[in-house]
Design goal:
It is a single chain. Helix content is 0%, strand content 49%. The protein is mainly beta and 112 residues long. The mean pLDDT is 95.
């Protein structure tokens, strides 16, 4: 059974940083396109970033480009999202996902 478990969320002030982790079991993250998506209160799911298998090419939503960095540790089968210069509009539940499964999410709240 494939499971994705996110961690690392919390409350941070505007301009602060957080690092989210996603521990995968039942799959090797380096073999799949892995993504972070988020859902703000009262809104739909928003794609944030994807890292691709092989050369680990990455894509980012315009809203996070230059502030967020997606990466993976293949040996640990873990996906990361380094979030810098956080803004209140980044407040959301963050999920890691591939085409078949999504984790339970971790809450990120950006507020002074």
């Amino acid at each position: 059974e494939v499971q994705l478990v996110e961690s690392g969320g919390g409350l941070v002030q505007p301009g602060g940083s957080l690092r989210l982790s996603c521990a995968a079991s039942g799959l090797t993250t380096s073999n799949y396109a892995m993504s972070w998506v988020r859902q703000a209160p009262g809104k739909g799911l928003e794609w944030v970033s994807t890292i691709f298998p092989g050369n680990a090419a990455t894509n980012y939503a315009d809203s996070v480009k230059g502030r967020f960095t997606i990466s993976r540790d293949g040996a640990k089968s873990t996906l990361y999202l380094q979030m810098n210069s956080l803004k209140p509009e980044d407040t959301a539940v963050y999920y890691c996902a591939n085409s078949e499964v999504r984790g339970q999410g971790t809450q990120v709240t950006v507020s002074s």
